[in-house]
Amino acid sequence: QKKMILDLDTGIDDALALAYAVADPNVDLIGIISSYGNTLIETAAQNSLNLLHLLGADDVPAFIGESHSSTTDHFDVMPISQLIHGKNGIGDVVLETSPRHVETQSGVDFLITSAHQFSDDLIFIPTGPLTNLATAIKKDPAVATLIGNTTLMGGALTVPGNVTPFTEANIHQDPEDADYVFTHQKNLTMVGLDVTLRTLLTKQETTAWRDLGTKAANKFAELMDFYIDAYANLGIDKKGAALHDPLAVAVGIDPTYVTTLPLSMRVTYDKKSGDYGRTIGDKDKLLEPTSSKAAILVDTDRFVTDFQTLMLSVL
Ligand code: BDR
Ligand code: CA
User: Fold this and answer.
1) Ligand 1 atom at shortest distance from the alpha carbon of 81
2) Which of 245, 249, 278, 279 to mutate to test the pocket of ligand 1 (most atoms within 8 A of CB)?
3) Where does residue 228 fall: left (phi above 0), alpha (psi -120 to 50 degrees), or beta otherwise?
4) What number is the ipTM of this complex?
5) What is the pLDDT of residues 281-293, one digit of tens each?
6) Residue nearest to atom 4 of ligand 1 (CA)
7) What is the pLDDT at residue 271?
8) Smallest Cα–Cα separation from 200: which of 307, 295, 296, 128?
């Protein structure tokens, strides 16, 4: 059984990614690192603890990651994030407070020790900015080659971004560290908006969750419906909301959900360039072999069906 670490800016679709990883019998979820993005880091960490408690997964430890990018001294939540994820990151749904606290070891150090302990057997899934991974590699460069599989949600190669025409939110929060990760981390798969926007969940699925009648099912339906309503109100999609982060977890476990393009990638971080935060193929490395891949197609029906089956099993 592979070991998995999630790095979440918890976030509604991050909450779904957490539930998916708890539910999937093919992986052993060994820890959750918090990031900033959809919310401030403290809120993300508390959300992760409370969600684990709700799902009866109080054995999974939670760690605090970096609270802002390495090129800034603080982080402010974007107004659009609050519209999509609510003021508390989970659709303003109130969860019972976990009896646990975050671990004293930092998220970055947990990632470094886990990379050494599990190496090829470790799957790392960042679904927020890439600051924690970049910080870990800068502190211990072996991390870049040790982690067996890094599958991230972020970027937009072939479709417009969701912050600017070029930029996806997770990459937008910290383009410098994202570029550092893209140019250092081995065995990296980017699951960007190219594919995640094709995986929508609708109220038909959340109604089936509610029918289970459990506390977890009702809370998850409540936060998912907030996200679906936000997508409709903001004109993103009338029918459903994107399963961005759970798709990255699924691909980390089973790469056959997507078709990938082998590609060395860069992120533009020159603020004057006009395409700050763009994920793009590295023109200087097009002829060189690479272990980096970008997902370009997804088996939507198979993924959404499997996602729903796992959710019904865990809620
Ligand atoms: C990504 O940004 C966050 O809002 C979501 O949780 C997802 O990880 C989508 O651009
Ligand atoms: Ca996220």
Assistant:
1) 4
2) 245
3) alpha
4) 0.98
5) 999 999 999 999 9
6) 38
7) 87
8) 307
Assign 220 a pLDDT band (cuts: 50, 70, 90): very high
284 Cα to the center of ligand 2, angstroms: 30
Catalytic residue check, 244: yes
pLDDT digit string (tens) for 239-279? 999 999 999 999 999 999 999 999 999 999 998 888 999 99
Quick check: is 9 catalytic? yes
Computed over its alpha carbons, how large is the radius of gyration of the chain? 18
Ligand 1, CB cutoff 6 Å, lining residues: 11, 13-14, 37-38, 127, 153, 162, 168-170, 244-245
CA distance 243 to 312: 16
Q: What is the pTM of this model?
A: 0.98
